[in-house]
Amino acid sequence: MNKHQIAHILEEMADLLEISGENPFKVRAYQNAARSIDSLSEDLEELIQNNQLIEVKGIGKNIAAHVQDLLETDTFPEYEKLKKTIPAGLLECLKIPGMGAKKAKLLWKKLGVTSIEEVERACQEGKVESLQGFGKKSQEKIFQSIERSRKYEGRHLFPTVHEVAKHLLSDLRQISGVLRAELAGSLRRHTETVKDIDIVVSSASIPNVIKVFLQLPQIDQVTNKGTTKVSVILHRGINVDVRFVSEKEFPSAWHHFTGSKAHNVALRSRAKDRDMKISEYGLFHMKGKRAVPVPCKDEEVLYKKLGLDFIPPELREEMGEIEAAEKHELPVLIERADLKGCLHVHTTYSDGRGTLEEMALAAKACGLSYIGISDHSKAAHYAGGMQIADVRRQSAEIDELNAKLKGIRILKGIEVDILADGSLDYDDDVLASFEFVIASIHSRFSLSESEMTKRICTALAHPLVNILAHPTGRLLLSREPYQVNIPEVIACAAEYGKVIELNCNPRRFEIDWRWGPLMKEKGVKTVLSPDAHGPEQIANVDYGIGIGRKAWFEKKDVVNCLTVAQLLKHFSR
DNA sequence: GCCGTTTTCGGCCCGACTGTTTTCAGTCG
Ligand SMILES: Nc1nc2c(ncn2[C@H]2C[C@H](O)[C@@H](COP(=O)(O)OP(=O)(O)OP(=O)(O)O)O2)c(=O)[nH]1
Ligand SMILES: [Mg+2]
Ligand SMILES: [Mg+2]
Ligand SMILES: [Zn+2]
């Protein structure tokens, strides 16, 4: 069982405890522990072996024992016991928006329903409205909520939502009476996938602005509407939360709505320790029961009043950023302007849509001064992998283009398949003809974790390999990562001085940003790669920057911030 | 269940919205 599966069981345990009526803080303890395990940037088994699991924040003696049980036996006694008393289908019901543990339990106890379908039927048959605490309206609301969540549930890729959000934001800014409107939530924090669009708006005439906003043509339905916030669903099937505040409240509201939740909670408890209070309305000094406002003209001041350096939104995940801000040890995060070139680009020589020249010009248009071409190798039939003769032809064409083109240097590279045994898809003499070699896996995904790890480490040990690309093969929202021990791969990359890619294709966005701090600790560098299969995809790096920042990467950690001469030297070529 | 140089007990972020209630519980962000 891997840590994500373990985190999932702990989440489930929290739900079971909540339904069973346990102390809410105990429920939260399990939720916190799940979050900690999920975002752990160390190897779980190693932590357990060294008895260091209880040192992880949010994990104490009890949950540590459960985690060890889960790792060894895929379950733990308390979990089994609770599962026997609560039907599995009831947990699914908690996914219905508006349906929490209390309501689900009541429906189960009074009506015997144990699945979403049964809740739906109970609503249709009018059995819900007569229950204590329910009524006609809430019955109808539950029914609607089920229908809606079937249609609109789930997360989205970042760029899809970001495009929609930008348009919505500019429409909002044109509404008369709107002073400021900004993106918040996971979009502002640049998470790899997002659930909804969160926006904060300031205005002196909120009721009117809300009225006009709700008339925007892209809105399909309104799901919530109060005096300070509204929730809608767009025709595109994307949920939107908008919070309306006064201009004075804007900084704290923006901060609140940016999150993450865990970051907010940690910061608020820090404020409390200092006799202060944070809410979306501002920072306050507590004088007994009285809350005296502490004016904060922007987020920087807010952090400062709490004794912290400004924390960039991408880092606000409660993953060590508050401790670092206190010690003035936050990284100076990479910015788009730091990128001097890009590697990992496909052309018509394999499965790309752009010619060499088109891709080179696209990179130049993005302000880059070099572009590293890396088409697929011969084993990649699925992607028109290059035969040796193709490699020769491409090399000659690159020479011609480099003589002809100004302001962009084309580097000769390859994305060579790592075969099942860890060997590479070309002989060394062919590999030696490139200026850089990217190695990656495109076949035989279902090896065991140890086999896969060994396979990758064998490839990394090859002296001609420079970069490991997309190290888990995940496709966000569609394909699970293959099993591989990332801490071992990072250790191996450190040993051989190899680079691990941050693939900026929005469906990949990996190596996962959560491993960034471990890579930095081990001295492993990364490269922000577009993995472009067409000229417009060079711009993938624009979105990748946000993920790179989430990974705590600085300019010095990213090899395509080097000049072409420095880069080739880094690769010893 | 977790946590702690103010504490090993007694806290655990804080507020909006909805529908039900007759003053608030449940759910969510
Ligand atoms: N203080 C506090 N803030 C919260 C809480 N829940 C959510 N928030 C704030 C921080 C979140 O980033 C923000 C938006 O909530 P969302 O549910 O949309 O989550 P977020 O955008 O972070 O991620 P997601 O939408 O899932 O991609 O609201 C909470 O329980 N307490
Ligand atoms: Mg959100
Ligand atoms: Mg939201
Ligand atoms: Zn690839």
Quick check: average pLDDT? 97
How many discrete structural domains?
A: 4
CATH architectural type of the largest domain: Alpha-Beta Barrel
Bound molecules: 2'-deoxyguanosine-5'-triphosphate, magnesium ion, zinc ion
What amount of the residues lies in strands? 15-25%
Distance between the termini: 42 Å
CATH superfamily heading of the largest domain: Metal-dependent hydrolases
Descriptive overview:
With 573 residues, the chain is of the alpha/beta class. The chain has four domains: 3-151, Orthogonal Bundle (DNA polymerase, domain 1); 156-247, Beta Polymerase, domain 2, CATH 3.30.460.10; 252-326, Beta Polymerase, domain 3; 336-571, Metal-dependent hydrolases (TIM Barrel, Alpha-Beta Barrel), CATH 3.20.20.140. It is built from 24 helices and 17 strands. A seven-stranded parallel β-sheet has the order 11-12-13-14-15-16-17. Strands 2-4-7-6-5 form a five-stranded mixed β-sheet, sandwiched between helices. It has a three-stranded antiparallel β-sheet with strand order 8-9-10. A hairpin with a 4-residue loop joins strand 6 and strand 7 (239-245). Helix 1 (3-19) packs antiparallel against helix 2 (24-38) and helix 20 (449-461) runs parallel beside helix 21 (486-496). The longest helix has 17 residues, at 3-19. It is globular, with a radius of gyration of 26 Å. The protein starts with a helix and ends with a helix. The mean pLDDT is 97. The site of one magnesium ion has 4 residues, from strand 4. It binds one DNA strand of 29 nucleotides through residues 17, 22-30, 32-33, 57-63, 97-103, 133-135, 137-138, 141, 185, 198, 224-229, 231, 241, 243, 256-257, 259, 261, 264-269, 271-272, 277-281.
